């Protein structure tokens, strides 16, 4: 019996030491692909950000870009030619050095394969050149002041030419150049990350991270509470997050998120072709009830398409004012006897389980004018996208997650003629288009900021989109976990996590 | 008809069945609203990118051309490339299928145990409490939706009592070298008893849920057929010879009642695979059922078609095997 107890004791000691080196992260997200040339979803990008090194990175906890694989760069006077100087101590896990040839291979491959995120490069890049072993040059088609921000997205991360084929997407686990390498990957079940000894940067604080995939939020919450996972990252339901705040031993982290939600108004469709109708809807929507009742305070009301906290943001949309909304509707010809009857569309699963409630609150808030009657309609995501591209829907809910952190990514895709078509508002304004092109060509932030503020004001007056709320990032973890930083860039860095 | 020509006839008859299914799935998917390219790219990508992707996937071709292209590929054994992940559908099915098979085998064995023993004992004690409870049980369980039963078991054993995990196949901290994909078998092959215990714990709730549902059919079948057999002369003769009741029941009555039951069990096994969809979704079981649900959400045409054809072929193979075994056991079925 004594011997048995000693063995058990020893096993427990060994286990407690071993478990210090492992952190388990649970998520309901899925990995679609780990090929940067085709990766265009949040969680896949997030894994790539932890196993690959990018040309540039962000300072931890901020949205400030810092050089990473590119030590420095020069921009030609005309703003079209970028010459990048590559660091000399970066390698992939198999020992292949990252040089200008690797960058050229990777950029050209992205543009040739034309995967989902390729347009971020193809729209901007005219050609790529190897100047010498550690100097890489990119010539742009047009001046594009946000180009360096684009390099922070995984589409621009170099891949190992010995592993990634030139002419097709790669379906396996990439050869690592970042803090971790993948040692086990069972799709939709789990992914094991272990320290990459070839990485030039600082050692990860925890050598092994296991990412466990769950089908739904309830299972993830239970896994966290039972200790099956140490951290739950994406996505618990808002009410569960609130509950967990009161669970001893569990800590809830909330941080800024660049994700925005808004109503799209199809300006080509009646009655939404009348700017007065759009303005009245913008005045009547009740953002406060949505963020307080549905998101239990885990979101913030939003009054511009540029999220709060980002440079150039200005609260350009008015606060809720039912009286003003009724007055405007009266001018537009709508009264209690002749109400404005509209359809409001939402999609039930793409944005989580709260979407139907959001639609209901919006309906009620608009109907409180006494002049608007709202019919709620819904369609599954793939049908929904088809409908908004075809212009079937007049007023519908949509969300945006940025590709790169720059106001350009919150204005250009919505207000440029092409962008407005692909997002269902069909808005066209030559003046706005010229202003945004000028902002892309401007090299100093001050000029860009002035232009973007002007664009936001025009947008508020015309209201082809009505911003509703800005999400917040959240993470729930046991209190023995340190190093959770919810960054404005949304990069979740596994290599700074540690057990106390 | 000889056994050989009987088997060949069964295989030939199965082919048009699979073809009809393939045609139906192919065209229904394309008629209902929802576009795979849009489901993947959403509104973020420019229209040119959406068009390019559609061209790449061949979705801009006339539907009939798409169909014959697909048919050609299927004939060559190529189920296509998933539009969502860009991986061959066949390799995704191969990744997922062992999980479903393991769940199915487990629940099948569970259902068999309940069905055979309870069914036989109920027949032996016809119209007594055990028989009545068996009949009530089978009606109740047959009527209960599988996901509701799953949720209740999750709530009781997973959430209130916290005895069993409510989802997945293996705890994150338990590592296992995967060889066959059947994790119980893999843990035995690896001599990894920690993993074996962990896999078994994960298997219990979904396996029991699915097993309970199927057990009601077995129970009724075994009970009714055994009741019939117990009234036969050979059973009376066995009783007259003074054999032990267990020997009479299991050695004579149940054994002879098994020919029709075997057919039903075979078909149930095949249907269980398809029926695992709801159980897998309820328990986050990473099998082919939850794979299909995910792919439907993204309108991943090749993956949906591939999975359904795979199911169909599997059901056909099982039913052919049952027919062959039946033909071997009972020559009267060869006509």
TrEMBL record, chain A:
Keyword set includes Signal: yes
Bilayer-crossing regions: none
Keywords from the named record: Signal, Transport
Compartments where located: Cell envelope
SUPFAM superfamilies per UniProt: Periplasmic binding protein-like II (SSF53850)
GO MF entry, a single one: peptide transmembrane transporter activity
Domain annotation Solute-binding protein family: ranges: 65-419
GO CC terms in record: ATP-binding cassette (ABC) transporter complex; cell envelope; periplasmic space
Superkingdom of origin: Bacteria
Listed InterPro entries: Peptide/Ni-bd, SBP_5, SBP_5_dom
Any single GO BP term: peptide transport
Classification via PANTHER family: PERIPLASMIC BINDING COMPONENT OF ABC TRANSPORTER, PERIPLASMIC OLIGOPEPTIDE-BINDING PROTEIN-RELATED
Similarity comment text for this entry: Belongs to the bacterial solute-binding protein 5 family.
Name of protein: Peptide/nickel transport system substrate-binding protein
Native source organism of the sequence: Thermosipho japonicus
Highest classification ranks of the organism: Bacteria, Thermotogati, Thermotogota, Thermotogae, Thermotogales
TrEMBL record, chain B:
Entry-linked InterPro entries: BPD_transp_1_N, MetI-like, MetI-like_sf
Top-level taxon of origin: Bacteria
GO biological process: transmembrane transport
Stored Pfam families: BPD_transp_1 (PF00528), BPD_transp_1_N (PF19300)
A GO-annotated cellular component: plasma membrane
Record keywords: Cell membrane, Membrane, Transmembrane, Transmembrane helix, Transport
Keyword flag Transmembrane: yes
Annotated organism of origin: Thermosipho japonicus
KW Hydrolase (keyword) present: no
Transmembrane segments: 12-32, 105-124, 136-161, 203-222, 257-278, 308-329
SUPFAM superfamilies: MetI-like (SSF161098)
CDD domains linked to this entry: TM_PBP2 (cd06261)
Family, as annotated: Belongs to the binding-protein-dependent transport system permease family.
Chain ranges of the ABC transmembrane type-1 domain: 97-326
Secretion signal span: none
Entries under Gene3D superfamilies matching the protein: MetI-like (1.10.3720.10)
Membrane protein topology class: Multi-pass membrane protein
Compartments in which it is found: Cell membrane
Name of the protein in question: Peptide/nickel transport system permease protein
